[in-house]
Give the backbone structure.
Amino acid sequence: MKYAGNVWDKDALKNPETEYQTLLALLKQKQGFGMLFVRCSPAEGEQIIKRTRTDTLQQTVHVLRLDQPVADFYEVLVDKTDVHNANVLFVTGIEEFLEGEITNTVDGELGEKLKHIPRPLAHLSLLQSKLQEKFAIRFVFLLPLFALKFFINDYPELFDNAVEVFEFPTDMELLRQETFRWVGGDRFEAYGQLSAEERDRKYEDLQKLIDAQPLISERRIELLLEQGGLLVAGNRCQEAISNCDLALQIRNDNHLAWYNRAVALDLCDHHEEAVDNYRQALSFKEDFYAAWHNLGTSLSMLGRYEEAINSYNIALRHKPDYYYSYGGKGLVCSVLGKYDEAIEHCEKALAIKPDYVQGWFSRAYALESIGQYGEAVASYDRALEYKPRDHQIWYSRAKALEHWGNYTEAIASYDQALAIRPDDYYAWNNRGLVLNKLELYEEAIASHDRALEINPDDHFAWYSRGNALSGIGKLEEAIASYDKAIQISPQETQVWQNRRLALRTLGFE
């Protein structure tokens, strides 16, 4: 897809399978030079490379791993003779070429602060025409979020030249609502359970108390931060940031105000600024373990994984039983493809707090990633014991059962997810795909129809609906569905192939 201005819309997380199929179709269809940016985790990137090699047998796929700095990216390509016969070249490690400086953190640890001063590789926009003259290759750059943001913000001209961008959400992003916590007392957990009307009444009550306080007082700061927590609970994050600003006008060294401001920024997806705010909080309170933890999570969101693990370790140094940080390390290890380590960290978290839902979920995710589907399902079941109305857990459990080959149980899990969130068109479409595998084509069509009622622009749902219609011999209707898919995404070669097959069966080719 063409870059359209937002790197990631939290309300419209991309479906990884749909993104992959679109990427694959583009790689199959287009010949010659091209540049694609794929925002993904390292583990997801390895899966994309592996699947592409399997799914594009007629093309030569190579990988260039930039694991150390080079003086000239172009010269590296010229010198690598095996690259010249490639049709597709995956490039990993591009983020290593964003120049940084090593600085001391407030805890005395070494940390990296990115400077927007690029090394030679960052001049891809200048190299683009030179690369095109020399290489008839589709370059696929696999990179984390912070690197993609760097290129979009500092080199927008690169994205004016037919560069394609694909995004694969990480497990951390799918669990973002569990990740950031406002600090200030147990009452903030309860604010999330209030109705909108109840929160509005509480907001007015707090405002009256704030107005009754002296302009400069600790009590006024406390009330402003409490009101900010109420605003965050109602997804009014920008207003919460303003509340923190008012508190900081009274006392600029208030570590809780800086911390809570960072939480609100994270929830608005402003992770770079959030990182700066957590560091401000830590400059006033070095042993603030919750800030170290959230700093790690913000860095994870940006794809700065080693820094994230370092932050989690510092949090655990200050509070060894802080199970959230073990859970955070588990998530990062999964993102990096270190699944055994991920399971170990999750189990440490669960040993401290057996009802830690995210720990069970993350453990299941890691187990599923190494093909231990039965154990993964059991881990999802433990998570559901504590949180039976969680849509994401039911959805992920369904995917694990599907991979395990237990299609009937997978459908039942999708049904549970849809009972909680009937507007999840990914679940409706995936349910249809499983029904298709069971050759229950009429039910599959009904599922795809429900998905398309919610999102009529999902080309993959139209394609899947066409396949189900072909399964019961309704070839004219199948062709109409394929046509809708092609209208939305013309580069899908598999859709064209299935459409031609349907036409041939009808005697038109």
About this structure: Confidence is low (pLDDT under 50) at residues 1-12, 99-122. The two ends are 32 Å apart (CA to CA). The first helix runs from residue 16 to 29. The CA atoms of residues 466 and 480 lie 8 Å apart.
